Each structure stands twice: as C-alpha cells, then as structure tokens.
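for the recovery benchmark. tokens below, seq after
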C-alpha cells in the first residue's frame, strides 16, 4: 500500500524532477520547456497546500495547472492527465497495486480523449500508453512506479519533445520514496 502522505512526497519528488530538468526541456523547446516547469511548479504548490484524500491531491493539482491557462497543448496534456488520475483515485488515504494500475489506465483514457479533441499532441500520449502497459505487468505498487519511470525513459530516448521529456522526468521522480 502507498499512503496519501507517501504519494504526496513522491509527487513532490516528481515535480522537482521536472523543475531540475528545465535546461534540458528549454533546450528541446524554449516555450514548451518553460511551460513544463510552470506545470511542475503549479503541481508542487497544489500538493503542498492540499489536505485531503489521494483524489483531492490530484484534483488540486489539476485545478492548479488548469489555472495556467492558454492554449498550450503541453498544459492541456497535463490537465487531462491529472484529471484522469483524480477520477481514478480513491477518496481515501491508501492506494494498492490495482489502484495504481487503474490510475494509469484512466489517465491514459483521459489523455487519449484530449488528443482526439485536438487539445494535446500524440508524442506524450504514446509515452503514457507504454507506461500503462508497463504498470499493468508490475508485481506491486512500488514496482509499478519504477516500471513506469523505466518505460517512460525508454519511450523518450532520443526525443526532443518537452512534454514527453517532462513526463519521463516526472515519473522518475515519482519512483523516489
């Protein structure tokens, strides 16, 4: 089981992973890279201020990112991803392996719908598809975070898409306890 507090710490590490990758993200695409660090900062602030359940953590993060506004497809991707994570999250304080699998599957579904609506790009959606498959094969919830990070890093090898790279850096941070 992963507790709500452990997940909050993991989310903090995840945002730090993106923020500390700012140079890499900006080198890939100046505006897109900055937008991804803005997203990570918004998620970090929302997690720090959130005092509710696991679902509330993701709802607060999604709301915070949606307030960034604009038509940036990277920001839209993150809002869809966080909305999917929130929708699949328990309204409690613990998450088991099946819950982690459900989180990634629902988030992929929400991002796929956003892609179909023209709100985000295909590259990070493809990364989430690979991640979802990796998580479905995990043996426990802690392995699921590691497997997600490994799959994202492999899927983004050689890419210069700042959204995809930010997903990989986020998931690597999420794997840190």
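predicted aa per position
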């Amino acid at each position: 089981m992963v507790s709500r507090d452990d997940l909050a710490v993991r989310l903090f590490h995840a945002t730090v992973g993106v923020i500390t990758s700012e140079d890499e993200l900006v080198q890939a695409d100046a505006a897109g890279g900055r937008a991804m660090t803005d997203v990570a900062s918004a998620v970090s602030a929302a997690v720090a201020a959130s005092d509710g359940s696991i679902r509330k953590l993701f709802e607060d993060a999604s709301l915070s990112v949606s307030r960034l506004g604009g038509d940036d497809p990277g920001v839209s991707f993150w809002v869809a991803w966080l909305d999917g994570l929130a929708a699949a999250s328990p309204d409690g304080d613990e998450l088991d392996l099946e819950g982690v699998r459900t989180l990634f599957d629902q988030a992929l579904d929400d991002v796929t719908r956003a892609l179909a609506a023209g709100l985000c790009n295909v590259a990070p959606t493809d990364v989430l598809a690979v991640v979802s498959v990796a998580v479905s094969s995990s043996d426990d919830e802690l392995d699921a975070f590691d497997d997600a990070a490994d799959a994202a890093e492999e899927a983004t090898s050689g890419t210069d898409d700042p959204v995809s790279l930010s997903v990989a850096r986020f998931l690597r941070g999420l794997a840190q306890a």
